[in-house]
């Protein structure tokens, strides 16, 4: 298992990342195809990709990008790798960009994955990894109901 960092994704890496996205994220967040995926990725500024590679295959993917004074991010892992510490390893690589990481996280268990399984809220994962939850800052639209999560290197997230 290794983490590869780069500023772009090759077409093959994009295809593998899209496959993880569409199998692990809720149905409401599905990307119908590469055009939609490219439309999501292309406006991101100062992007850095983190690829978790296992035996030549993409096991997880994360990206950081500029969003005002902090780095925003998203992270996803093939469910075959859940509960084995790989998400934390990948997240720790993102934290090296510090001093702050900002994201949105689903904080309920009402969504489902494309295969019908429930989409589990990742909030406990983020709390375990030093993030704080700001329930006052929410993102609400027809696709997503999420809360702000923040990590600060000095541990004083509010």
Structure description:
There is one protein chain. With 158 residues, the protein is an alpha+beta fold. It contains 4 helices and 7 strands, in the order βααβββαβαββ. The protein has helices at 11-24, 34-41, 86-95, 123-128, and strands spanning 2-6, 48-54, 57-67, 70-77, 100-106, 132-140, 145-152. The chain has a 7-stranded mixed β-sheet, with helices on both faces. A hairpin with a 2-residue loop joins β3 and β4. The model has no long low-confidence stretch (mean pLDDT 93).
How is the quaternary structure best described? single chain
The biggest beta sheet is recorded as:
7 strands, mixed
- Overall 3D geometry? globular
Radius of gyration, rounded?
A: 15 Å
Strand portion: 25-35%
Structural class: alpha+beta
Fraction in helix: 10-25%
Task: Give the neighbour order of strands across the main sheet.
Answer: 1-2-3-4-5-7-6
Order of helices and strands: EHHEEEHEHEE
In DSSP terms (H or I, runs of 4 or more residues), the helix count works out at 4
Overall mean confidence score, pLDDT: 93
Number of strands: 7
Cα separation of the termini = 34 Å
Q: Low-confidence runs (pLDDT<50, min 5 residues)?
A: none
